[in-house]
Amino acid sequence: MKKDDLAYWRATLRLLGIMLAIWLFVSIGLSIVLAPLLNGIKMGGYPLGFWFAQQGSIFTFIALIFIYAYLIGKIDHKFDVHEE
Amino acid sequence: MSLQLTTYIIVGLSFLLYLVIAVWARAKTTNDYYVAGGNVGPITNGMATAAGWMSAASFISMAGMIANMGYGGAVYLMGWTGGYVLLAMLLAPYLRKFGKFTVPHFFRDRYYSKTAALIAILCLLTASLTYIIGQMTGVGIAFSRFVGVSSEVGIYLGMAIVFAYAVFGGQKGITYTQVAQFIVMTIAFLIPAIFISFQLTGNPIPHLGLGSQLKGTDVALLERLNKVVTDLGFREYTTATAGSTLNMVLFTLSLMIGTAGLPHVIMRFFTVSSVKAARISAGWTLLFIAILYTTAPAVGAMAKYNLHRTVTPGTETNISIFEPNAHLEGAKRPDWMKRWEKTGLLTWDDKNKDGRIQYYNEKSEDAVFLNNAEGAGWKGNELAVNADIIVLANPEIAMLPGWVIALVAAGGLAAALSTAAGLLIAISSSISHDLVKGMLYPNLSDKKELFIGKITMAVSIVIAGWLGLHPPGFAAQTVALAFGIAASSLFPALMMGIFNKKMNKQGAIAGMLFGLGVTLFYVFAHKGIFFIQGTSFTHLFGGDNFFFGIVPEAIGAFGALVNFVVAAIVVRFTPAPPELIQALVEGVRLPRGTTKLRGH
Question: What is the ipTM of this complex?
Answer without folding.
Answer: 0.97
